[in-house]
Amino acid sequence: MSDQNAGAPRVYLARHGETEWTISGRYTGTTDLDLTNNGVDQVVASGMMLVGSGKLIDPSRLARIFISPRKRAQATFRLLFEGEGQDESMNEIAETTDQLAELNYGDYEGLVTAEIRQRRKERGLDRERPWDIWRDGCESG
């Protein structure tokens, strides 16, 4: 589906491909992890389906691209646009920004939910209800 007739600006968000910590369910924010081989395959397949002339994301129609500084996000950007002649014109509209850096999980970085809940329980926290990242946040994060 092309956006060639669209009159309004559009925003596309792409999440990085799989990492070792996404496989194990670990909270990954500031830790700089590479994509797994499967993660690379995921991104390449997505790029082939979504990116290109006449496809949903037509590189010739992009005005700006913002990318997280994390290796996994940088690799995802390169792989998504790899077959689209990622020349100087792509680099001119692409900007790496810390404002898109992942959430800072603080003390919970690299842990899974069960580990976080156990640690908090040992400290007498969350007696009334289990820890929830969106409600309770991350210590030191």
What can you see in these coordinates?
With 141 residues, the chain is mostly helical. It contains six helices and two strands, in the order H-H-E-H-H-E-H-H. The protein has a two-stranded parallel sheet with strand order 1-2. The radius of gyration is 19 Å and the shape is elongated. The model has no long low-confidence stretch (mean pLDDT 90).
Helix content: 25-40%
Largest sheet: 2 strands, parallel
* SSE succession: HHEHHEHH
Outline the low-pLDDT stretches.
none
Q: What oligomeric state do these chains adopt?
A: single chain
Calculate the terminal CA-CA distance, rounded to whole Å. 40 Å
Fraction in beta strands: under 5%
Give the beta-strand count: 2
User: Given the structure, what is the number of helices?
Assistant: 6
Strand line-up across the major sheet:
1-2
Tell me the radius of gyration.
Answer: 19 Å
Instruction: Round the mean pLDDT to the nearest integer and report it.
Output: 90
Q: Could you say which structural class the secondary elements and strand pairing correspond to?
A: mainly alpha
